[in-house]
UniProtKB/TrEMBL annotation:
One Gene Ontology term of the molecular function aspect: endonuclease activity
Annotated signal peptide: 1-30
Record protein name field: HNH endonuclease family protein
Keywords, ordered alphabetically: Endonuclease, Hydrolase, Nuclease, Signal
Keyword Coiled coil: no
Domain GmrSD restriction endonucleases C-terminal: 100-206
Domain of life: Bacteria
Annotated Pfam families: GmrSD_C
Length: 212
């Protein structure tokens, strides 16, 4: 077994509790919502502001409150586990008691939720360096728990840990057939939240979208 383990208006327009409820109602095995088609992703990529990354000064993961609880008492991690898994059954505490999770990043398949991480497609630290340092904590919480954009996905835990806070010019999923989708998700998230990209990042995304 592998090793375990505008902007304010845009963000506040997505009530967190409502998003959690909507995600829990989705059928098991669903992809993250809001993945644009390749042509749209290319257009959005061209609309992103290009600039150097900001610093990590002041960054703290706790400035992005995540796995927030919805109105039904289930948190964001539990919502994504239910959404992205197959035949998922949950207990009264919302935690999965059974199911299968297929990780599109590496092709791994898991039956224990403890083997699965919820990846922030655009990592929290990468978001900080590309504009989120200027947000309020409320805005960062919306970003870290967004169930209506392709920003959260269940993947193999150690693959997520390997990715860390790297951008697409530094890391891409080992499943090359998923590069197009991954790039589309990344672009959609950065476009929605008006985050910047670097020249290297834009080049890697363009190459990935060219493989679609």
């Amino acid at each position: 077994m592998q090793l375990r383990r505008s902007l304010r208006a845009t963000l506040t327009a997505l009530p967190l509790a409502g998003a959690l409820t909507a995600a829990l109602a989705m059928p098991a095995g669903a992809e993250p919502p809001g993945i644009p088609d390749p042509a749209t992703a290319q257009t959005w990529l061209g609309e992103l502001k290009v600039g150097p990354e900001g610093s990590m000064d002041g960054y703290d993961r706790e400035k992005f409150p995540h796995w927030s609880e919805g109105a039904d008492g289930c948190n964001t991690r539990e919502a994504v586990l239910k959404r992205d898994g197959e035949n998922v059954e949950v207990g009264s505490d919302c935690y999965p008691t059974s199911g299968t999770w297929n990780s599109p990043y590496d092709g791994g398949s898991w039956t224990q939720p403890s083997d699965v991480d919820i990846d922030h497609v655009v990592p929290l630290a990468a978001a900080w360096r590309s504009g989120a340092a200027q947000w309020t904590q409320e805005q960062r919480e919306q970003f870290a728990n967004d169930l209506e954009a392709p920003q959260l996905i269940a993947v193999t835990d150690n693959v997520n840990q390997e990715k860390g806070d790297q951008t697409p010019d530094q890391w891409m999923p080992s499943e090359t057939g998923y590069h197009c989708t991954y790039a589309s998700m990344w672009v959609a998230s950065k476009h929605k939240y008006q985050l910047t990209i670097t020249e290297a990042e834009k080049g890697a995304l363009s190459t990935a979208l060219g493989s679609c």
